[in-house]
Amino acid sequence: MDWHVEPGAQLRGRLRVPGDKSISHRALMLNAIADGVANIDGLLEGDDCLATRRALESMGVPIERSGEGRYRVTGVGMRGLAAPDGPLDLGNSGTSMRLMSGILAAQSFPTTLTGDRSLSRRPMARVIRPLSAMGANIDGKANRPPLHIEPAERILPVRYGLPVASAQVKSAVLLAALYADGETQVSEPATTRDHTERLLGAMGADLQVDRERGLITLRGPAKLSAVDIDVPGDFSSAVFFVVAALIAAAGELVIERVGVNPTRTGALEVLRLMGADISVDNERDIGGEPVADLTVRRSNLRGADVPASLVPLAIDEFPVLFVAAANAAGTTRFVDIGELRHKESDRIAVMIDGLAALGVDCSATDSTATITGGGYGGAAVDAQDDHRIAMSFAVAALTAAAPLDVRGTETVATSFPGFTDRAGAAGWSIREAAA
């Protein structure tokens, strides 16, 4: 499916975005291996989270849907998962594969984790190595999916230093550590999203977090108690509307009930460095996660040098931050962003190629990108079946000199079902392009 986006829209009004994808995955997985029953409200019903649900159900976890985003999970306990009838197909979800590897490494039955063409290209050595050091029997051809996991004699506690800041790898190790007899310590070179730590603590795990030293310590074996979870709106989804409102024709947009966990909101800091007028209002706590309403007003953005320290806190938002840079006066420089080459697509290459096709002055190295703002035209760009790339170019179309066609948008449903409907309600028309 392709999108056709006309430039010149004004964005205004109030809207909500779907539930946070990272929290939704963890709410399902951790409550599945807990004791008790959990009610989850606001679960993201995107393809990725539904893949996690199906995988858990295929291993005997009762999960009932009672309405939009409302689920009831009956936990089977730490050792209650059952062998599935066949491979677990996780679609496009790298989060599902990496986190579930940590849990499945400790089970008494073999499993195979598969995915779609995009997921099958993504590197898995980063989880295979630490899990193998913990005694897991896990491998994949050329360290890529499918992953084959055989029962381990036992899971060992480890001290593991993450070579690259990654919440998914950190979480995989912590989930495996739930089954280890002893103390596992994970150190991270920079702060990453902490939804796993927050939820494990709420469920009764023996967990300590030393933020100053970047250390997370977990003592196993653990026994988790189910907890009800009210999932806030996904900041990584909200940011497309944030950048759209900043660069579109005059207007004011309020995005309600967005998760503003400080380990997730690096993009706000980047945009404020660029002169963005964004207010964080009505701050409150919902289920242990900070939540707020974001008020966004059109702003004259300026180029900036983005600090490397913000990269792990904005890792999913860089495609649309590239679009913000293309609409800023002056040059924006991004450094230490090589991790973007290992997402659903090589996000540096795809974004730079697409922006260059529009006429944007931009360039990149293995781990940097430089973008100089200025006017640009319309074109047909290929999102390479990457949901965040597709939505980013829909944002770019708002200020293009001519309409923009975006190819390969089907995967938007993995993280943001109903994206075009919400865009339309805010005054931003995205329609299916003629074949």
Description:
This protein is α/β, with parallel strands linked by helices and 435 residues long. Helices cover 28% and strands 25% of the residues. It has helices at residues 21-32, 47-58, 94-104, 125-133, 167-177, 195-202, 235-247, 266-273, 318-326, 347-358, 387-396, 419-425; strands at residues 3-5, 13-16, 37-41, 63-67, 70-74, 88-89, 111-114, 137-140, 147-150, 159-161, 182-187, 206-210, 215-220, 229-230, 252-259, 277-286, 289-297, 305-306, 331-334, 361-364, 369-372, 380-382, 404-407, 430-432. The strands form six sheets. It has a four-stranded mixed sheet. Helix 9 (318-326) links the parallel strand 18 and strand 19 (331-334). The mean pLDDT is 95.
Query: Residue share in helices?
Result: 25-40%
Content of β-strand: 25-35%
Taking the sheet with the most strands, its summary is: 4 strands, mixed
Low-pLDDT residue intervals, each spanning 5 or more residues? none
Rg from Cα:
21 Å
Q: Which strand order do you get reading across the main beta sheet?
A: 22-23-1-24
By DSSP, the count of extended strands is 24
Class per helix and strand makeup:
alpha/beta
Total number of helical segments? 12
Q: Can you give the mean pLDDT?
A: 95
Oligomer: single chain
The coarse silhouette is globular
